[in-house]
Design brief:
Blueprint: H1 13-35, H2 39-66, E1 73-74, E2 81-82, H3 90-97, H4 99-112, H5 118-121, H6 125-129, H7 135-140, E3 151-153, E4 156-157, H8 169-172, H9 185-233
Antiparallel strand pairs: 1-2, 3-4
Helix pairs in contact: 1-2, 1-9, 2-9
Length: 234
């Protein structure tokens, strides 16, 4: 996630790194407690680790619930899917429809140059039509297929034609590099799909982490018991 060059697509990087740093600090406390046979440090370690396990479990369950809805719609003749904002969970809708949140996301989408690079990636119209666009490229860089605008090239559409759909995104789309379909619901849906994929990756990672830390927690409990027994013998 941290390899992405814009803030739109690394929203969970800092929380994941923060979680890793916290687990590292807790691990040091547990290591010192086991090394010095100190029950107080081991109790602190176990309590903090228990809180982390509960937090990971809650976040993972919420992440799976939030990302349960929403999927792309296949379009005849295209290799990529189109996305509709209404298909996603209420959390995504509230987050992306918030003017401040979308203003920030839109600004970094424009800076990312993803849309403007399409004409460089796909030199010919044939290449573009057979391309497998990402959710953000499909939703933010072009008008919805139902609008019926003729494609001139990968980054330009003939807007002199009257749209064949009443979809408001058809009128919001412009060929301008700074406008494109960044104000469209289809763009928000593309971002929602990307966030869904990102959250799912983190949720699966957290699930594996939860299992590993549960085993570590069990080992820590054993270490605390051994420390308590050693002290009672002394």
């Amino acid at each position: 996630m941290s390899t992405h060059h814009d803030n739109c697509r690394r929203s969970l990087t800092l929380p994941v790194l923060g979680l890793g740093a916290l687990i590292f600090i807790i691990s040091i406390i547990g290591f010192l407690g086991a090394l010095k046979n100190n029950t107080i440090l081991l109790w602190i370690y176990l309590i903090m680790l228990c809180l982390v396990l509960v937090a990971i479990l809650v976040f993972t369950v919420l992440a799976f619930i939030i990302t349960n809805n929403g999927s792309g719609h296949s379009v005849a003749g295209l290799r990529y899917k189109e996305y509709q904002l209404k298909d996603y969970s209420s959390w995504f809708l509230n987050h992306l429809n918030n003017p401040e949140n979308w203003k920030r996301l839109k600004s970094c989408l424009v800076k990312s140059e993803d849309c403007n690079n399409l004409s460089k990636k796909y030199k010919t119209l044939k290449q573009f039509k057979s391309a497998k666009l990402t959710p953000i490229e499909a939703g933010c860089c072009r008008p919805p297929f139902e609008c019926g605008y003729p494609v001139v090239n990968a980054s330009y559409y003939d807007l002199s034609f009257h749209p064949t759909s009443s979809n408001k995104d058809c009128k919001l789309y412009k060929n301008s590099r700074a406008v494109k379909c960044y104000n469209c619901d289809s763009c928000k849906a593309g971002v929602a799909q990307y966030m869904k994929i990102e959250w799912r990756v983190v949720a699966i990672f957290n699930l594996i982490l939860f299992v590993v830390l549960s085993i570590v927690y069990f080992v820590g409990c054993c270490a605390r018991r051994n420390a308590a027994r050693s002290r009672s013998k002394i």
